[in-house]
Write a structure and sequence with these properties.
The protein is α/β, with parallel strands linked by helices. The chain has a single domain, classed as Rossmann fold (3-Layer(aba) Sandwich), CATH 3.40.50. The protein has eight helices and seven strands; from the N terminus they run E-H-E-H-E-H-E-H-E-H-E-H-H-H-E. It has a seven-stranded parallel beta sheet with strand order 3-2-1-4-5-6-7, sandwiched between helices. The radius of gyration is 17 Å and the shape is globular. The structure holds D-gluconic acid. The site of D-gluconic acid (GCO) has 13 residues, from loops. Belongs to the short-chain dehydrogenases/reductases (SDR) family. InterPro entries: KR_dom, NAD(P)-bd_dom_sf, Sc_DH/Rdtase_CS, SDR_fam.
Length: 255
């Protein structure tokens, strides 16, 4: 047994939605483990800044701006990777949005937008990546679930449905691609300190609820997900397939 099991030198990882938040932490973790990282997002300026900061920190990083909810844009991005000889070994389907509204007031278009961004994108990007991975007989797909992959919370129905779907998409990928050399697994983060959760972290009642409800007694920091993403991206997890690992300070295990 050696720590080299976790070494990602020579691998290329695409992380969707990675100019900030959890995606950025995933990208930095994979880069620190040796991977060349492709940052993705739709805001070119934010991507360029993130890429510059990561390069200055000594990481190998590129950017690919495309909209993960646009089927054609995803296909074009992968065609460009093909033309440039870029082979994606690891995909982290991280791109996601939140929209908090009680269902009785929720418009169908907002429901759809959340499903497109948080669930369908993982299928579309995963499919394009897997089409190439099966030719090489190897690849790692890491989908980002949530505590809401298992449990509902009022006001976030479409997110909950999308993240429940991400869990089952992960199993579907394992079922179809496991025999072709691909491992598809998911990470289910707990309540994390990110921009997306700003409305929650700044709400004293919600903050107290999270701290009281989580055995760890605190929110998670994005960098605390790095060990899990590196594990799932590496040879160390070659016989793990279709799993969702909750990195949540123990929240999902207790009432
Ligand atoms: C929410 C949050 C979610 C949680 C996540 C915990 O409104 O519920 O924005 O993103 O942080 O569900 O896993």
């Amino acid at each position: 047994m050696s720590i080299q099991l976790f070494d990602l030198t020579g691998k290329t990882a695409l992380v969707t939605g990675s100019s900030r938040g959890l995606g950025r932490a995933f990208a930095e973790g994979l880069a620190a483990a040796g991977a060349e990282v492709i940052l993705n997002g739709i805001n070119e300026q934010r991507l360029t800044t993130a890429a510059r900061e990561m390069s200055e920190a000594g990481h190998r990083v590129q950017t690919a701006a495309f909209d993960v909810t646009d089927d054609d844009a995803v296909k074009e991005a992968f065609s460009r990777f093909d033309e440039d000889g870029v082979e994606i070994d690891i995909v982290v389907n991280n791109a996601g949005i939140q929209f908090r509204k009680p269902m009785l007031e929720l418009e169908t278009a907002d429901w759809q937008r959340v499903l497109d961004t948080n669930l369908t994108s993982a299928f579309v990007v995963g499919r394009e990546a897997a089409r190439r991975m099966v030719e090489r007989g190897q690849g790692k797909i890491i989908n980002i679930g949530s505590l809401t992959s298992e449990l509902a919370r009022a006001t976030v129905a479409p997110y909950t449905v999308a993240k429940g779907g991400v869990k089952m998409l992960t199993k579907a990928m394992a079922a179809e691609w496991g025999g072709l050399g691909i491992q598809a697994n998911a990470i289910g983060p707990g309540y994390m300190l990110t921009d997306m959760n700003e409305a929650l972290t700044s709400n004293p009642e919600f903050d107290a609820w999270v701290k009281g409800r989580t055995p760890a007694g605190r929110w998670g920091k994005p960098e605390e997900l790095i060990g899990t993403v590196v594990y799932l991206a590496s040879q160390a997890s070659d016989y793990i397939n279709g799993q969702i690992i909750y990195a949540d300070g123990g929240m999902i295990s207790v009432l």
